Structure formats: structure tokens, C-alpha cells
Here is the input.
Amino acid sequence: MRLIVEVVSTNWRDDYLKKLADYEALGIPEYWVVDYAVLEASHYTGQPKQPTLSLYALVDSEYQVSQFRQSDPIFSPTFPELHLTAEQVFTASRSTPTN
Here is the structure.
């Protein structure tokens, strides 16, 4: 497995602490934590709190974090051809397809 994406819920501590440590130990190259509803502590979403995509990339067996907000382009080491902004990820779940 090359990438895991978690959407933050009310158990945000699991996503940022427990799962993060588990995935790092398993050697998952890239782990995204998407908090579009700003549920976690401001330590992870900034001050003032705002929707944040935290991308953890495995470097020398340890995760290094990059955070993306609003129109920030996401830079994925696993998928360098990916062309998305943080806002596009946040709004994708709220979009409804038209038929």
C-alpha cells in the first residue's frame, strides 16, 4: 500500500496519534489526514483553525509533515503528477454529480 487517506471525525486523536504511529511502523510511504470540518485541535489546523490537509511522507523511516490549506497546491511524493489544491479535496465530498 502506497497511500492511506483518513478523513477526520470526532476521534481525531486516533488519526493524528495512534494511526500515524501505526502507519509509520508499517512503512506506509504516504499518509493524508483531511480535516475539512476543522474537528481537531488548533495544533494541527493552525490559528485560527481552518480546513487542513496534513500530508505525512516517510523519510528515513520517519514521517515528515506538510500542511495544505485553501488554494495551496498539494505536493505528493507518491503521486507527483497529481494536480489538486487543498480546497478541491475539501469541496469534493460536498459536490453532487449532475445527471
Summary: The mean pLDDT is 83. The chain has one domain: 3-92. The chain is about 25% helix and 25% strand.
